[in-house]
Specification:
The termini are far apart. The chain is mainly alpha-helical. The chain has one domain. It is 85% helix and 0% strand. It contains eight helices and no strands.
Length: 234
């Protein structure tokens, strides 16, 4: 017994074709997100590594002005934007001391946390599409299956017990729609898990850089901050 997928598609009803079309659009959307995220993650990692090498040297030499200038260059990646935001907050707090007990380091830490949340959201952009496709596609295929089975039973009722051959195409159509739904959903779920892991890995590296910046500023405060702390202690 041969399996002719072309014949099955040719004999599909309007509703089944609509379901297949919707699944096709979902597959295209998922594939677009996967390609865009892979390219974005690759670019982010490359730019972050390039910037980190330069930033480490400038930070060790306490060249904060040069580090901030390098971090503010366009298209330098999320790591650069993170450090730029933190250094700006720190320098502004040093030049204009905050009221109360809030220190420049604390303001820097808060700004870094806000920027890190924004970067995390940017890294996970589009993953919701994959999650939706992975969870909804099987049910869309199941909808086509249910309608196909209903049509098949209506054929059985019309033809009687001896007309099973007349309704076999409807049953095959229903099963094919289910298979298409699963074919779209399974890779989407796998891609979501893979990209989520990549996003978490990048975010972990960025969090480590954030912690290293805070540790360095605490260990080597600006002269104005050191003088203010000494005066308060006296």
């Amino acid at each position: 017994m041969s399996f002719d997928i072309g014949k099955i598609f040719a004999e599909m009803g309007v509703f089944a074709l609509i379901v297949v079309g919707v699944l096709g659009l979902m597959a295209v959307a998922a594939l677009t997100v996967v390609v865009e995220r892979l390219w974005s993650f690759r670019r982010t990692r490359r730019k972050s590594v390039e910037f980190a090498l330069n930033a480490a040297d400038l930070l060790a030499q306490r060249e904060y002005a040069q580090l901030l200038a390098a971090a503010e260059r366009p298209r330098n990646g999320p790591l650069a934007s993170l450090l730029a935001a933190g250094l700006k907050a720190y320098q502004h707090a040093v030049e204009v001391p905050p009221s109360g007990d809030v220190t420049p380091i604390e303001l820097c830490r808060r700004e870094l946390a806000r920027r890190a949340d924004f970067i995390a959201a940017q890294l996970r952009r589009g993953l919701g599409v994959l999650a939706s496709v992975g969870s909804v596609a099987p049910f869309v295929g199941l909808l086509g299956t249910v309608v196909g089975i209903i049509d098949a039973f209506q054929g059985i009722a019309a033809e009687g017990s001896g007309g099973i051959g007349a309704v076999s195409s409807g049953i095959a159509e229903a099963l094919v729609v289910t298979a298409i739904g699963l074919t779209v959903a399974i890779p989407s779920v796998l891609a979501f898990n893979y990209l989520s892991a990549k996003s978490d890995s990048l975010m972990m590296a960025i969090d480590q850089a954030r912690g290293q910046l805070v540790d360095h500023l605490e260990a080597h405060p600006a002269p104005a901050v050191r003088e203010r702390v000494t005066a308060q202690a006296a």
